[in-house]
Amino acid sequence: MRAWLGLVHHPVRDRAGDVITTAVTNLDVHDIARTCRSYDLAGYLVVTPIEAQRALVERILSHWRTGAGARRVPERAEALRITEVVPSIDAAVARVAAAEGEPPRVIATSARPTAGVPEVRYEGLGRELRDRPGLLLFGTGHGLTRETLEGVDGLLPPIRPRAEYNHLSVRAAVAITLDRLFGDGGD
Fold it and tell me: What is the pLDDT of residues 125-176, one digit of tens each?
């Protein structure tokens, strides 16, 4: 598998649409790592420009990779081995390119359609990302900024629940997306 996942904490939008930086959460680090490992992704990159937040992620990773957490819950240690923290989306792209030997195709996600950004279908993408490097970007807060979306190679269609309410947690959106791409019912 040559697919990577980036959880972006900056630049993202707040409720009013302003550009912000969100805080890293312990649950996102653990749960998304476990989902990425379950679907055999090559890596999971937590993207935050805040040095103190990167240090926090490194402490979490150390605890679960080599500390008491690794001895207590070895399955979590295995999942967190594919997790890294980087300061920017550009650094995430560079990290994937360095590991894969070529630049990744960057695919974003959003809870709403975005005019002007080419849509990528789920069908075929999972198969493609088994053979070609790809970086799937998920935004925290109220999603990736318009500028970020305009700079990607494609945008997956939004997850559309049957209810009018559509405000999934990023952990749920990651799990649904990875299952559609790489699960038994995917490519």
Answer: 999 999 999 999 999 999 999 999 999 999 999 998 887 777 789 999 999 9
Q: Which percentage of the chain shows pLDDT scores above 70?
A: 98
Give the DSSP letter string of 126-185: HHHHHHS-EEEEEESTT-B-HHHHHTSSEEPPPP--SSS-----HHHHHHHHHHHHHSTT
State whether residue 48 is helix, strand or coil.
coil
Question: Can you list the domains of the chain with their CATH numbers?
Answer: 3-182 (3.40.1280.10)
Q: Measure the CA–CA gap between 58 and 84, rounded to whole angstroms.
A: 8
Cα–Cα distance, 113 to 45 (Å, whole number): 24
Q: Is the pLDDT of residue 24 over 70?
A: yes
